């Protein structure tokens, strides 16, 4: 009975756990999902992005980033950073205003919400009376001017958000002060534009949608100038010297209006339709920027010919006879232009200041694009962060830790050749100072994409930076020529369109999608596998090469009768030589037949072997001799679903429904047996009584459960889930040998002993394989992980790791152990006899199933030389557990991902040092850490001259009860870390996020339905303790 009792509390072990394990969500990598607003501070050089789910993110120099989240999950429609201040104002679509501040705490800046305010009208007024359309922060940083749909301009005092009703500029007041000939009620509707005079803070410009523009004297409450256009006003720009206005209109035209004390001109100085004479779409925003050379930059959004190019998302730049319409593949949210001039220079100096623009920053719906305006041809600038991870939908990911310097430099060199079209300009948004220490090692995150590309990302620090892009398209014959340049146009083409950005969600062929990636960091070999059964083995080459890719076919059905593949066809490979750029170049293609999705992949670069598995079986290929070693069919006679392919599910619907109804009937019958009928009032009491004897009679510890055996007739039992190479004792205890292990969806483990010839005879003798063992788990749960432990109960090192002196040689004297991880339990067997030694079953009540498992090394934050190897486990409930090796004792458990987020769970990948990544939207990875020692999070400082001497009353508003900004500070050893803010909270009300990820990720067929609702997890995280 003693073995059923919970272990006692060990204070020493608990203290050690606190030194080893701590859960934190640290940073989001990628591009914010559904951006809705853009802001920029020229003085702080900080960029701000708001999203439709209420999040705001601030970016400066690489490593400088902050995140805040509004209490309400409403879309951010406008962001305005106060001039010269570490403050910003946001406007939400519920008409509320929010004041945020960057405050220094503990040596680092934090983003905090100070105040919120909703503009209220008089009782009985229509909602449009106070619906804010334009926000103008005054240069004094003490006032906000708010233009509304009713035509009134309200004034609000900062920082307390106090409405100054006596300063309201009503449309009636403006009408009374206009000349008689301009008094038409039609000129008033909503306020479209508000701008402060570039030189005189006592004058503001008000633009109304019907075409009226007035310059209002704030001190005298009078109209100084008025301009009346015949077209509907979209926006207006006031030139830096204050002498010229440029207005843009709904008919695709823009007009220039001189501002002078002479007689008022009823007509504009110049009116132009840039892409006329045919009807054009509206120009929604225009900038007229001066230069020292005298020729201005004209930059505007929209205005394209309605009939032919009305669906394009364009921003046009005109300067010195050059005109380019930058064409984006997604809708433009906003843009800003970075200028050399100090924004306050024109107010301080009497001389004329010039704008001298040097960069155009465009926020599109799916990416950020920066254009260099100083270099000829206006090339794009490479992004150090905010990468569009989903430029083609992500289908898989693979993490490699501690990359050797030589391989790192070779990958960067290959990537730099792909970046020749980028500008050499340094990243222009460089505000703030990153206090994060340099990363201790070089880490790579590889993402596979739907278009057949693999992208290599620098995942060492806070910024996820693209290093190199590999395309597998050239190996195959597709409908498009890979050398085609769709952005190229003739010189005489009009409009002068130029494609910019990397977002391209359309794939030439869905069969090109990458499903599995395996990189050996020591040898430079890479294996990638795809949707149509293609397995490519590639080698890193520093020079371009033209070579033929050798093709080998692997028939996994082995001519079995009665099976017919009903899915997609294989990809047609090119037969002749193909030119490959420097980088990873394929030299052999293994084509699985039938061409089903490759579900598992393993590469052993020391033995020069690659193993691959599908829903039909698995095979082993010798990529040095370019020959197949063996194939093994794992199909069960009932696995007809495995032959239908991912697009042929109609015929299986009846069978799925039949099985579902059977399960429902079984559950009802079993529930009747457990809960006998009784009066309604006694139902709860009766169930409690029925559970007590059940618990008393249970022969398992409280954290375990009985497992129901699955039927062998369940579909996809032959689905190969995992492949693993190991040098261990397989046949007898006196001699170890290379081996290959495979685990299937039906709970079967196959073990093959391999004979790999020595190096001197490697090319002369074939690799031989012989099946040594076949293990069938009694509960038939899918096998998700296989691991061999050496004589010291330490996981075997990676191939070539010992040869490079990066790991100790495994202990081959003591007995080895085999760890098999299924969806429902962990089980340790002795080798070579394969007798069960111990096991751990998951908790029963919630129905936990293992989805991801990986070995991780956890170092102590107190003792540099102490660390432990454990299993990091992710379940279908979104929990992450750490399980000890080899005793399989649960150490800690954390809630990480919501159980409804099947797509996030499916995308999760662990690192070797206790970190992980998973998709929180189609374009963002959430990074988390389970280790106290390895923690990558932003810690930065933003300060300004004005904030060093705080004005009286600044930031005096009441603080919000819940902290809703990411804490960028550090913690002492004894201090409990506050839960960090995570982007998932900003996706609470978004029902399309999961559907977008779900459509591309290779989901688990046995994991239930895909849900489409995100929810908050960040503010309910516990810290450190085991559950």
- List the strand order in the largest sheet: 22-23-24-25-34
Q: Please report the distance between the alpha carbons of the first and last residues.
A: 23 Å
Q: What characterizes the major β-sheet?
A: 5 strands, mixed
Mean pLDDT: 83
Q: Can you give the helix content as a percent range?
A: under 10%
Number of strands: 61
- Number of helical segments? 10
CA gyration radius, whole angstroms: 32 Å
Structural class: mainly beta
What coarse outline follows from CA principal-axis ratios? elongated
Strand content: 35-45%
In the predicted model, the low-confidence regions spanning at least 5 consecutive residues are 1-5, 484-488, 647-652, 669-705, 945-965, 967-979, 1002-1027
